[in-house]
C-alpha cells in the first residue's frame, strides 16, 4: 500500500485506499496520494512498480471490465471556498495513438477524450476544478479508459503515479531515485554462498534460466556458466522456435503447426546434447498462439497433432521436460472458466502422449493469469478450472505478486497456489529487458527467503541480446536460488563481478557499469526502463545541471572505452547499448 503523511494545522492525514478526513484550514493539499490509493484498475494484475515509480495504477480498455476504471475516495469536513486544481502525474501508453480517458470528480468531467499526456514517460498536468465541484462529506475521483477494444497488459492504457487536489500554486514533490553503490570484496569467496548446516539441500530443487529469443550460439555460450553457478535448468524461449531469426516482434513468424526446419533442429539438438553432457535439465517450450498468423484453434482436434510433432522431435533427442505456454494471449470469447478448461485439456493431451514413451516426462504450463495472488475474480475462475481439470502432476509457471515486481512474497505464492492447486515453478522476470535498449545489471532483491517452500523451481528471465553481461545479475539469481536463507544482494553482486574480472581494472569498469545500469529492481520502472536516459533528461532539463549532463555523457564514453580495452572481444552487445545511449544523449545536448 502506498501511504503518504500530510502535516496539517490540526491533524496528520494518512492517505490510503480507505476514506480520509481532512482539515482544509491551510494551504496543504486536500488530497494527495499515489495510484494504489485508487480502487480498481490493473495494479492487482501487473503490480504497481513501473517507470521508476512505486504505487502506480493503470486503466485498460473497456473489455477488461474491472481494470477499465479506478476510483479514489476522500472526505472533507466542509466545502472549500477557494478555487482549487487537480495535479496528476501520469503517462499515456507507448503506442503512437493517445488513449482516450474520462476523469470525473464528483460526476464533474475534468477531461474526456485524448488524455494529452506524454507517451511512455511521466508528465505532470494541472486541471482547474470548477467551483462547487467539491463538497463536505465523501468525494470521489474516477478515471476510466474509454477505448472499446484492448486486452489487459496491452495498449491502449493510461497510467497514474500520483495526484493531488490543492491550490493552483502547489507542486508535487520531486521523487528521489534509489542508487546502487557497490563495495568490491577484497577476495573471491565460494559462490554461490555455501549451504548452512540446517539446510543441507539447495533452496529450489530446479534453478536456472531461459533465453529471450536467444540463438543457438547464445544458449551454448551460457551452459558453462550455469554449471559454474550451480544451476541445473535451461529452457528455450518459445520465441527461439519461431521461424524468423529477428528479435523485432513485428517480424517474428510463429508457425507452430509446421515441423521445425532442419537447420533449427540441428542447432537445438546441439543445445540439448550440451545440456545433457553438463548435467543441465533442458526444457523444450512452444507457444502455439503468440504472434502467430494461425493461432491454435481449440475447436479443431487435428491441430493437437500438428502441435505435438515438435514435442515428439524434442523427446526423440532425449528431452524429458516440456512446456506449453499460453501466456500474454486472451482466452476465447466464452470466458475464463471455459478458457481454463480448454487450456487444461490441451496440456493434458500433450503430456499424456509424451508419457506413453517416457513415463517420467514432465510438463510446466504457463497460463494466462500467471501473476498475482489468484483472487482477482476473472483470474480466479480460470485458475480454478486449471485446478479442477489439469493433470495434477503438471507444474505451473508463476511470475510473482506482479509481472515484474520489486518484491515477490510467500503470501502471494501461497494464495495463488491455493487457487490453482498445482506445484509452482517461479518464472522470475529479472533481469529481462524485453529486447529494449537498456541493461539491468544490479543484484536480485526483494524475493522472500522462504519462497522455496512454496515453489519447487526458480527460472530467471534474461536480457535479450546481452547474454554475456547478463551473467552478472544471473549469478546473483543463482546465489539466491541455491541458498535463499543466507542471500545478501550486496555480497552477491560483489562476488558476481569478481567472478568475471581477473584484474583490478576489470573489476572497476564492471563495477561502474553495474552502478550506472542498476536494474529496475533498484531504480524502479519496468523491464524497458533506461535509467541512463532518464537521468540525462533530468540533468539536461535544468540550467543548473547542464554541466553535469555533459560530464555524465563523458562518463558513459569512458566506460565504453574501458570495456573495450579491458575485455577485448567480450561484452560487445552491452558496449553497443552504452554507445547507443551516448549517441542518443549527444543528439539532445
UniProtKB/TrEMBL annotation:
Organism: Pedosphaera parvula (strain Ellin514)
Keyword Secreted recorded: no
Domain of life of the native organism: Bacteria
SUPFAM superfamilies noted in UniProt: (Trans)glycosidases
Any Gene Ontology biological process: carbohydrate derivative metabolic process
Residues making up the signal peptide according to the UniProt record: 1-27
InterPro entries attached to this UniProt entry: GH (IPR017853), Glycosyl_Hydrolase_84 (IPR051822), O-GlcNAcase_cat (IPR011496)
Record family assignment: Belongs to the glycosyl hydrolase 84 family.
Domain GH84, chain residue ranges per copy: 200-485
Keywords noted in UniProt: Glycosidase, Hydrolase, Signal
UniProt protein name: Hyaluronidase
Active-site residues, record numbering mapped to chain: 328 (proton donor)
Entry GO MF terms: hexosaminidase activity
